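Write out the 3D structure for:
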Amino acid sequence: MKLQRKRPYAYRGKRRITWWKALAALALAGILVFAGLFGAVMYGSYDHIQDDPQVMVVLGCRVMPEGHPSILLQDRLDTALDYWEEHPDVTIVTSGGQGSNEPVSEARCMADYLMEGGVPEDRILLEDQSHNTKENFLYSKELLADEGIDVGETDVLVVSNGFHLTRARMLAERFGYGEVSTLAAPTSHLPSRIQMYIREPLALVKSFLLDR
């Protein structure tokens, strides 16, 4: 009868320790990467305005079933209105299509809200085909080109909640926007603020790799 040779107990223990060290190193690397991405998101979450933008692109967000803007979208629109009051000559693009659970397009809802706030209808362009941030910039670029505005040669101000702006700037520059400024809206709904700041570093990686 052949006896099975057993490894010494100390050796088995050493191998278990090696695996734990590897797992701990991977976990630490993941934490450091997430922390770096979170730092990038936080850096972009403040106003970065250069020169005097001629175009303001307001990025869409959810429209409630009753037809009014969600809290996050209202934050963006109120911020856009505050800027417009001091820069009434700016051309405003409201960018966002209609989701399956939305009664109107985000662009239409935003335009109506801005007009109620005093913005003349002829200062607003509606981009109502996009369904994500990548499409926001691609379709807004096409819409502005139809109006004779080259985003590669025009100062553009992008308005969104602060957590969104690092990714928004990255995509705007990737799709040919030249001088990009950002205007950070607050995120007044606390649960959404926590959720989005945790989610956004991962969305930043996704967009960097796939939104091309």
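The radius of gyration is 23 Å.
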